[in-house]
Automatic annotation (TrEMBL):
Keywords, in A-Z order: ATP-binding, Nucleotide-binding, Transport
Database matches in InterPro entries: AAA+_ATPase, ABC_transporter-like_ATP-bd, ABC_transporter-like_CS, Metal_Ion_Import_ABC, P-loop_NTPase
Lineage: superkingdom: Bacteria
Domain (ABC transporter) ranges: 4-231
Pfam families with a match to the protein in the record: ABC_tran
Entry keyword annotation includes ATP-binding: yes
Keyword Transport attributed: yes
Protein name (record): Metal ABC transporter ATP-binding protein
A GO MF term: ATP binding
Protein species of origin: Chromohalobacter beijerinckii
Amino acid sequence: MSRLSLEALTLAQGGRTVLENISGTFEDGAITALVGANGAGKSTLIQAIMGLLSPLSGQVHCSMPKERRAWLPQQLALDLTFPMSVEELMLSGCWPTHGTFKRYGPQDYRRMHTIMQRLGLSGLAHRPLGELSGGQRQRALLGRTLMQEAELLLLDEPFANVDTHTVEILCDTLREMASAGATVIVVLHDMEQLAQLANCVLLLAGGHGQWVEPETLLERHHAPARRHAHAPFISLNLPDVPPCSTY
Ligand SMILES: Nc1ncnc2c1ncn2[C@@H]1O[C@H](COP(=O)(O)OP(=O)(O)OP(=O)(O)O)[C@@H](O)[C@H]1O
C-alpha cells in the first residue's frame, strides 16, 4: 500500500528547473534513501513532498494528514539561539494535533518521558537546545516526530555530525517507525548507512530520478553486504542501474 506518490513531477528553484518528470511510489512501511550529489535536488524534492514548493508541473499525491507529516531539516538549518528546552521541543510535536495554545495533559508528559528514555535523553529534559551535542539534538528532534506520531517522515542527512551511538538509536527508531507503517524518506550520503537502512533508493542525477534496489547500488560501488561494517562514501557518478522492482 502507498499513501505517497510522485506523478511526472518537475520542480524549479529560482526560475531554473532542478528536477524533471519524476514519478514513483513510496510504499508504506519502507525506508527510501534519497541519494544524489550536492545540488542534485534532494532538498528541493523534500520541500515539494512537504507541500512547501509548488511543482512547475506534475503532482505529489499524499493522502497522509498534514499533522502527521514531519520533516527533520539539516542540522545546519536550525536556529540554535532559539530559547527552547528539550522538553519544550518534544512537546511541540503535539502542536499539529493539539494546537499551539492547548495545555499538555499528563498523558502527553508520560509519552514524552517514555520517548526520552528510549532515545537516551532522560536527564536532559530542561537543557536548552543550544547546549546539546549534535547527537543529543538530533535525538531530541526525532523525539519530536515520535510525539507527533508522524506517518510520513523526511530526514535530510540526519547522521551528519552525530556520534555512532546516536546513529544506532536513530537507525533503530526509524526501522521501528517504518515497521509500524510509517513512510520514511532519508537523504543519505554514506554507503554503510544506506546498506543498513534503505529498502529502496531514489537516485537523483542530472535532473532525473531513478529508482534502484540498494543492493544494486552497493554492488556498483563495491560496498560490503548489508549490515556489515565500514563502507566508503558514495561516489556519485551515478551509473545506469536497473529499476527497483518494488516500484
Ligand atoms: N532558494 C533557492 N533559490 C535558487 N536556487 C536554489 C534555491 N535552493 C536551491 N537552489 C538550487 O537548486 C539546486 C538543488 O538544490 P538542493 O538544495 O535541492 O540540492 P541538494 O541535493 O539538497 O544539495 P545538498 O546535498 O548540497 O544539500 C541547486 O543548484 C541549488 O543551488
